[in-house]
Write a structure and sequence with these properties.
Mean pLDDT of chain A: 95
CATH topology of the largest domain in chain A: Dihydrodipicolinate Reductase, domain 2
Number of helices of chain A: 12
Oligomer: homotetramer
Largest sheet of chain A: 7 strands, mixed
CATH class of the largest domain in chain A: Alpha Beta
CATH superfamily of the largest domain in chain A: Dihydrodipicolinate Reductase, domain 2
Shape of chain A: globular
Largest interface: C-D, 39 and 39 residues
């Protein structure tokens, strides 16, 4: 679901940032270069981190409470630890701030639903930061697909693989492969086909490390989503691709196929006695989606300032998470799960 | 299963051909150029077809019975209509002829099992013509995979799409998508992983033509095979790829990925104002697997003459068909089917 | 120049082969599979070679003289040592045989001119075997270029590199890089542009081996051909490309570019920690032009039987050689050589 | 030649910009984001342009004279009209400012030589902005080549084509194809091979527009540079490539080849009945070298601040221009020009 913004158009969007980690660094750097926005200050539970990043941009370190009380702050970016998300979303929404939120909305479905309810009730502008939607290549694919270049969708293959698995304790906390990684691909499936699946089936294995195998934490999975139109979406995930971050999509329609390839790290090729060697795809998401993060924040800032529709919104997060939970159930039981 | 040939080594293998259709044409042309084999004659229920092809190669038209009675015939190629396969296999095996047989072994599983029983009992050399196994590109992939280039297999994606669906009545007779097309990909999955799946799940849709949709005949499908090692194989099929015959494989292992791309029809590229245009993949199997048909028949002739192991054999056909049947059941019920 | 064949149409072309070496093997194998031709026998100064190849195809070993006296021989393939070419062409032409001739016509320009004079006087069908003209990829490029897909030609780049230099004594005898290798690219330039150059400039170096450097035999060269239309053709040659046989062409026209890429040895790609590795281009001309040799001989057989125009002919050989000589002069003097 | 910077290390480099045009926009935007530099103000003969760009960055509009008198300005970027370059370089050098200068140094060789003399005498840090040297792909190619990946260079092909020719009057003023475009490729040839050519040969045509043809202004050219080692560099240029900006390099060494491909505009491929369509290369230099401009300015700022060597310098500009003039002479006379 997307929201119609009702705020008056501010001259420059004044933004507070929660979280001075990796995504906080990216978003603060993007924000300070954006003509339409102004970074007011940074909040981080770990104060030295907040101080370091605030110092870099010449802005204030803020206390959490002061953000919600401050009428000169129009919007927040939530890029803090996942645990803090529901709490910060609720307070921001209640305080009437526009919200740019990294996933997840919350750790479990119940919390997500209650967060979503509040966001929708307050009608604050809300962007859920599914980065693929803002990547120039994914956008070009979606625009051409939706423009009818290959007719009705019949079959889509989404490949999404990480270079290496996260630490076990992170996996435990994040909810695992389906909620951490596959949820992006589920969102891509919904976005590209314009449909919500009627059923999902998942098969998963624990293969990459001794830790994963011992704990039986899935790190390799294949999902099949069946859409109301009959279109089938196949998602394959792995947390170990020795060659880098593998992000590909292909959509077969009645008139042909649209495909999205990985981008090579550089354009150099070496041909020698042992073969023709090209560089690998980008190493991971920070490099692969560097352009997407800029477009994403620009979409948020522009849409809030001009009262335009924001997408994806909180409802997209809820829907993708429901499907991820269904996939977990399917992987556990071996059975196809029907979606309401 | 593969068979150890016990025949004495003939100086030149004397072969009779059943079937003067498309595959009969290919195999007879290959045979007449093979130094180790000799085409004795051709049998076809439609006599003018047999006469035309026999005339082309300067060989005799034969009656079916005469083949089995003739001690100067060492081997048969069964490339006739599918209906005739079980009967011809049984008679050839009983007569002690080496058998090169196009798929299917028979139309239904019961017939297949009884055919297999006889072939195994007679111990005649038997090649089931799964063409992918003899394609130079597939062979290179298999050799390198089995040589350990990317370590243990974790995830494989097999893409296999036809340019256009066959006529409805052919589909009805052939048993449909899974037994006609997917069975090749199932064999590839078994061959590449070296494992038999513990379970299979399939999702299918009828999308390509009004006739397919009305008859609810699957023309688009996704299968998930789970292997004992935990490796997952995902197969995607369609009977309509506007751009030609799409035959790709990728295998992700612990140390990287081996991929098999389509071959373009030609090496010409045009760059103009509207983009960079390359030729499409080969139009269909006759062009794509032209080299495979030569290697395949050479493998048969050489193995029979020299008493070497032949593979794939009748047991491979039985196993692939069992999995295809299980996939049909899964597509019908929506449930994962466990394999014995 | 091309010749209009006036022979009556024979039912099957009866052909004698001169030369039982590598090209003789290829042409005899192709010929025995051609429905419209019949290999009568083989001549080779080294009789055991002739016997071996004749035995393989079940044909006779012939004496040179007997070929010209035999009215049952319609055509000859000259694939013997280069030294024997002028003599065999002259005798064949005088005897009224259709001639398929491997390059060169002769070792030096004077001999070439006198050979050409006789061939043209006798009006025998004559094919000079410039293999690129019959390669399916080169043909597709030429057809599309001549069909106007990129408009008038402005600039062409022809890349032609061998995997390794020939032995020094072969180089000495063959006339060197320009007459041995570049002459093919000069013919391609003439064929694709449809123009004869008004001038040529060449720069050459001796780099690949100690022997080449000591003898100052060019093994690396760049030629610039200026055409009457103003189009410029740049040819680059090397006798050492560690990665295989490199045969590429690109033609820039007013509306875009047509390019011809190398074909990879296989379609397998490995992606690992050290990069994305593809197979190299074909190793050398036998593999790269395997299809061309079949088309080439079919063109000859069909054209002779049906009285069609044959191209390229003796005049094309003369023209290409004149340009190669001019390039040698330019490489020696450093100056552009104007062509008549 | 490169210069050793002797300036004290300033805390932040204070820079004045000459020229508020396209390159001025790029450099000012890059500069304002650079932590080590500070844009003081902008000079442009056309005051409204200066005002617009200064306003955008919140900096002052400066008068030319005030820049040289101001001790708080450490460095200048010269991105103004080419006519103004010699004058601005001379005044900046005399005033002891570090200089970042877009090409050309001056319109004619005499002026270039006198400018170079002053720059070298004053020893001010000087960067000549040959953008290819800072492009990540070109840099990777150079680093790997110089690291010995393919051994000694034997043959290099540099392809450099613009999408469309500049206006005739611009061509007249800029000195034409060789001094405007080819000079970049000449610099690349010197940089990659690490050698200065002993001779150059050029062939040129006027083909792209009626205006170019009527004025006989070369828009299509091929150059051959011979290096002292015997390595040959072939440069091909055109001012009309319908498919975009074509910037490729390949270097053949004794052990193989390093190649630099164009980057596609996006990673989307469409496969349909008419073929497989990819996006074209980037449209022109602003898009293609966007990353290079950032690296280039960073190199300048960092090198000046830290007293490091700057390259390419004024001597590189002089050398490239001498070769461009020799190429013009060769194109006019048809003869190879020997370089001192």
């Amino acid at each position: 679901m997307t929201l119609r913004v009702t705020h008056t158009k501010p001259s420059q969007l004044r933004v507070a940032l929660f979280g001075a980690g990796r995504m906080g660094e990216i978003h603060s750097a993007t924000l300070t270069r954006h003509a339409g926005a102004h970074l007011v200050g940074i909040v981080d539970a770990h104060r030295p981190s907040a101080e370091r990043l605030a110092g870099e941009h010449g802005v204030r370190v803020l206390e959490e409470d002061s953000v919600f009380d401050d009428n000169d702050i129009d919007a927040v970016i939530i890029a803090s630890a996942a645990d803090s998300h529901p709490h910060l979303i609720l307070r921001s929404a209640t305080a009437g701030k526009a919200i740019f939120c990294e996933k997840p909305l919350a750790r479990d479905l119940e919390a997500v639903l209650s967060v979503a309810k509040v966001v929708e009730a307050t009608k604050v502008p809300f962007l859920l930061a599914f980065n693929r939607r803002f990547d120039p290549d994914f956008s070009a694919l979606a625009r051409r697909l939706h423009g009818g270049e290959v007719g009705a969708v019949e079959l889509a293959i989404i490949t999404s693989r990480d270079p290496a698995p996260p630490p076990i304790d992170y996996v435990m906390k994040s909810g695992g492969l389906f909620r951490e990684t596959t949820i992006h691909d589920i969102d891509v499936a919904r976005w590209l086909t314009g449909e919500d699946p009627v059923s999902v089936h998942a098969t998963a294995s624990a293969l990459t490390t001794v830790g994963m195998r011992d704990a039986q934490l899935p790190d390799t999975a294949v999902l099949t989503l069946k859409m109301p139109s009959g279109a089938i979406v196949s998602i394959n995930n792995s947390w170990r691709a020795a060659y880098g971050y593998d992000q590909r999509v292909e959509v077969l329609g009645q008139d042909g196929m649209l495909k999205l390839a990985n981008r090579r790290q550089d354009g150099v090729t070496r041909m020698g006695t042992s073969g023709t060697l090209n560089s690998n795809p980008e190493p991971f998401f920070l490099e692969r989606y560097a352009a997407a993060y800029i477009v994403e924040l620009d979409h948020f800032v522009t849409a809030v300032r001009e009262g335009q529709t924001i997408s994806p919104g909180v409802a997209d997060g809820v829907k993708a998470l429901r499907i991820a939970y269904a996939a977990e159930e399917s992987a556990r039981t071996g059975q196809t799960v029907t979606l309401g």
